[in-house]
Design a protein that fits this description.
Two copies of one chain form a homodimer. Chain A contains 15 helices and nine strands. Chain A is of the alpha/beta class. In chain A, helix 13 links the parallel strand 6 and strand 7.
Chain lengths: 354, 354
């Protein structure tokens, strides 16, 4: 009887669960995707026996039992008198949108390649990316990833940025910038947001050609293409200057995709693209600036994706890393503001600014 | 400052950690294998900065930071004033032999194939096994697995059985059995144990030819081959009778490798192999009979290995499943004894026995 057993010290359970965590993760994913957990949820407080779960989810009795027992180990379900019921954690695993976006991103984008993490860290290259293609960074191949993988990637990326844009837009547009340069603007979420809300602004977007094709398609669909300019570029080609004369250089969830030496060069190239009196806005999530330890955990986990899948050199940063890089690039920090629960907006001007 | 932050409710953290668990598992493995955690351990209570960890472990500063931050998310290390130190969980992750055996088994044998868990459960076949070879069960290919994978498999298998053998041997040999049939005897750990300790017993082992070749090699090296008999057999070929006339039929960590219909047939074939007055001994780990919740968690995790890698049909069982199967096979349970902290010895006789 579990109730009569000796409890083990917490760290002991913690490391044993860690040792089995890839198998248990797969059980939790399969239990959600097969409907096994939904069948437990449907039983509410009465609970349900494995045979009923199997019947409701349309899986074998064997599959239902294996998945229920895996979820029991994870405490997503509890077992009493032979009947399973959903725990609070099980509810969150089934229904919390952030948990779902993260879990699908990890499963679809990261799981297979993550086994190459150690190689990636030893070589400084994203060794896991070879499961999808021969690219040196994931950004080159983003629009060529298998459709399900791509969906999970973009859903993850947009989930975090979408919430920040409405909060940050008024601050960036308060001085009525006429020309905005969106560095690494991806498929255009921010660019289209700005074009839609400010009828006069002109936006130029720098990114890989695949992403820009999709952006242009999205802009035409929204009738916003007239004030949009796209410039295909490899951002790592530091010999190539950005176009110039911008009131705002915008770098959102961009610089964390680069290692520190490249960030320094990108800041310099961004500064050179400013019109007199212009500003660089950097929107980032720093792991030391999170409202709670879940935000911190997500960013520390995400760094591992950068190592093994994205580029082998970048990570989610500590805010001090960025403050140091900004100073080294000869920029002045004009403001440093929290945006929602996850993001920070750093606004920089060139030293020559008034 | 972490200390000033709002703590989130436990289930919330739990599911977010679960969503990132494959990446975090890889970070924990890489932190151990690269020496990053050993470098933190060496710093004892003073703690250590990432730059020193990188230098001691011979990895880049980037690799040290990414791995330390991943281990921070897992609470294997703690960070205070810029210095990392090992937690109690980190100590266990580095040094606990059971945790190490389990984690290497999961990484080397299970990780890649586990992504096929859902397919496996939908088809009743170990879909993940295709990462290693075209076999229908892992037992067919065991001695053809890549060497590192094989080492982790056998280390795992032996870790649990080795501890049980000295405890169980006196009970099985108290009536001085002359002929013992070891069903699925693998590479001979138990057979050689018996031959070494009882100078008169004859042991016959049934298993796949690859395992028996290795067993014979081990027996010759130990000078114990004279009283050893090996019979190559596919245990799933239920039309084929076992050899007969044995005082003991031994099934150790065997029946969990089969689905319930096959277990029923194996029990019948085992019963038919008994001499009058003989006994079937079943040594198993049941998840409801564990001394603590860690034992239960390990067995529930291990069931997932059976689903996606081993055979697609078996799992670690609840003791009641076995008591029901024994009764259905027309056997009588003579005794039911705990062995150490993990195992149970079920001793059965045929209904016709005195």
């Amino acid at each position: 009887m579990p109730g009569h057993r000796k409890r083990v010290p917490k760290p002991y359970r913690q490391v044993h669960q860690l040792a089995f965590s890839p198998l248990l993760f797969q059980a939790a994913m399969a239990a959600r995707r097969t409907g096994v957990l939904a069948a437990v949820h449907a039983s509410r407080a009465e609970g349900v026996v494995p045979e009923e779960v199997a019947a409701r989810a349309g899986v074998s009795r064997y599959a239902a039992r294996v998945l229920l027992e895996g979820c029991l180990a994870l405490e997503l379900v509890a077992l009493e008198g032979g009947r399973y019921r959903l725990t609070d954690a099980g509810q969150l695993w089934l229904f919390d949108p952030m948990v779902n976006v993260n879990a699908s991103f990890v499963q679809d984008v990261c799981y297979a390649g993550a086994s190459r993490l150690e190689d990636s860290l030893r070589t400084g290259r994203p060794a896991g990316l070879s499961v999808f293609g021969p690219w040196s960074t994931i950004y080159e191949g983003l629009t060529a990833l298998p459709p399900g993988v791509q969906d999970s990637w973009f859903a993850f990326d947009h989930f975090y940025s979408d919430a920040a844009f409405p909060l940050v837009f008024p601050r960036v547009f308060e001085p009525r910038p006429r020309r905005l340069l969106d560095v690494g603007g991806n498929t255009g979420k921010w660019a289209l947001y700005c074009l839609r809300r400010d009828p006069d602004v002109e936006v130029a977007v720098l990114d890989h050609p695949g992403q820009l094709d999709r952006l242009r398609h999205n802009a035409i669909a929204a009738g916003l293409e007239a004030r949009l300019h796209t410039v295909p570029i490899d951002l790592l080609d530091h010999g190539r200057a950005f176009p110039g004369g911008f009131d705002v250089v915008w770098m959102s969830q961009l610089l964390d995709c680069f290692g520190e030496p490249d960030i320094a060069r990108l800041l310099e190239r961004g500064a050179a693209a400013l019109a007199p009196g212009g500003r660089i806005h950097i929107l980032e999530a720093f792991w030391d600036r999170q409202a709670n330890e879940v935000g911190e955990l997500i960013l520390q986990g995400l760094s591992l994706y950068f190592s093994c899948m994205a580029n082998g050199t970048s990570r989610m940063y500590h805010s001090q890393d960025f403050l140091d890089l900004i100073a080294s690039a000869g920029l002045q920090l004009e403001s440093d503001e929290p945006i929602g629960t996850n993001h920070t907006l750093l606004t920089c001007v060139t030293s020559g600014s008034p």
